[in-house]
From TrEMBL:
Protein name: Transcriptional regulator, LytTR family
Annotated signal sequence range: none
One matching Pfam family: GAF
A molecular function GO annotation: phosphorelay response regulator activity
């Protein structure tokens, strides 16, 4: 069977657009925004060979904690059951870990044989940074199910495949734990695949949410046993606050003694670098209840030392107490050895079903509405093609943008005016002619002032 036509997009225009984009030319139309955003990452950040025909092998050893192993086992069971249906429909279903490393594949023997020729098989990696735009890898870069058909694959060797993947994410940290992917050779996938994947992943994440709520209650109970007059926070392993004492409220703007049990209710503390320090501490304290660490973080009142002590429940690390004003234990040493990847000099937007190619200088600020990001530009308000403010932040930060709030990313070169709010907060204005006031979170005020020289 020859090359097939995707359900909604003609294969020939997509193939031409991919060739143009791989050659360094811009693409204005004919490609879905999420695919174009993926192509941009493959070309400009990851330098993936568009002529690749076989997925590379994954590292032999992969560390999975017990909770990850449980999730992967559950996904494996779902995949094995669904594989029986795949045998009748001529497709395969693969399960992979959070790095895109394939663990198992089930389904039609002929489809599996073809898949193995491309190394869509156990011990191969299908992460986007190694294997380009594909259902597994591109689902790691965004939220929800991702469908990639035919020439939408960045790598030429996979153009005969249709695939839809979805990642199951840790509800506390947001990190991918495992993945499911349905693939079919030579024919499009059924419309029911996306719904089944959403239901399967949603069921597993619902179980993770229940466990996170239970851990939140355990964290609050363990927090109550700590006594200090200093500002004290109880944070989960993602660095978000679950509870704080009264002394923490004026320092960090958190409601003292008001527990935030559900992961969706928890707040990011007003302390720059704290989430990074917590991730470091989680790596050091796992399995060592007596470990203690310290760091220096920036709070609204200036730099403060903080001591982190692990909280364990049922032999699992569930969070930390963060005591401010005290430095005890192993010190955290910030590392500056990360070399950022080259960033593209453009970002793709979507307006009225048309793709808009934007230069960073045209964008005044970006605002997040859940996973949707809106760009305020010289050409009006445009939706970003990529989802999630973190992804937009990663692309635009090298071009003079600064994260000033959990919902706002601002082009600091476009800041025209500053204004103090009624309670002392700082507001940014990038267009004095428009009624816009961009709030600066207190933990970012010092950084914004340094950048602007005020």
């Amino acid at each position: 069977m020859g090359r097939w036509l995707p359900v909604t997009i003609s294969a020939e225009p997509v193939a031409r657009a991919r060739e143009d984009f791989a050659a360094g030319r811009d693409v204005a139309a004919g490609v879905r925004p999420e695919i174009l955003a993926s192509w941009s990452r493959c070309r400009d950040r990851y330098d993936v060979d568009p002529g690749l025909r076989i997925a590379p092998a994954a590292p032999e050893h992969a560390e999975h904690c017990l909770e990850q192993e449980v999730v992967l086992a559950e996904l494996g069971g779902l995949a094995a059951i669904a594989g029986r249906e795949m045998e009748r429909s001529g497709g395969i279903i693969a399960v992979a870990d959070g790095s895109g490393r394939v663990l198992a594949a089930y389904g039609d023997p002929e489809a599996q044989r073809r898949a193995e020729a491309s190394n869509l098989a156990p011990r191969a990696t299908w992460a986007e940074d190694t294997t380009g735009t594909n259902g597994l890898g591109t689902a790691l870069e965004t939220t929800g199910p991702v469908t990639v058909t035919g020439a939408e694959h960045w790598c030429e060797g996979f153009h005969d495949w249709a695939c839809t993947g979805i990642a199951v994410r840790d509800v506390v940290t947001g990190s991918p734990i495992g993945m499911l992917d349905v693939s079919r050779w030579g024919e499009p996938l059924s419309d029911h695949v996306t719904g089944w994947l959403e239901s399967a992943a949603g069921g597993v994440e619902a179980e993770l949410h229940q466990r996170a709520v239970a851990d939140g209650r355990r964290l609050v109970a363990a927090f109550a046993e700590r006594r200090t007059r200093n500002p004290l926070l109880g944070v989960d392993v993602g660095g978000r606050a679950v509870i704080g004492n009264d002394a923490a409220e004026p320092l960090l703007g958190l409601p003292g003694a008001t527990p935030m049990i559900s992961p969706g209710d928890r707040r990011e503390p007003e302390a720059a670098e704290l989430s990074t320090v917590v991730r470091w501490a989680a790596g050091r304290a796992s399995g060592f209840p007596g470990w203690t660490g310290s760091a220096v973080v920036t709070t609204p009142s200036g730099e403060q030392p903080v001591t982190l002590r692990p909280l364990h429940a049922q032999d699992r690390l569930i969070g930390f107490t963060c005591e401010f004003g005290v430095a005890d234990g192993e010190p955290h040493t910030p590392r500056d050895d990360h070399v950022p990847s080259p960033a593209p000099d453009r970002i793709i937007g979507l307006r009225n079903e048309r793709l808009v190619v934007l230069m960073p200088a045209e964008i005044r600020y970006a605002e997040a509405d859940r996973n949707t990001v809106w760009l305020s530009t010289d050409r009006g308000r445009i939706q970003a093609a990529m989802r999630g403010l973190d992804h937009v932040d990663e692309v635009l930060t090298p071009h003079g943008f600064c994260r000033v709030h959990r919902r706002f990313l601002v082009n600091m070169r476009r800041v025209a005016e500053l204004e103090r709010g009624g309670r002392g907060e700082l507001l940014l204005i990038t267009d004095p002619r428009a009624p816009e006031f961009i709030p600066v979170a207190r933990r970012h005020v010092a950084q914004v002032r340094r950048i602007l020289g005020v």
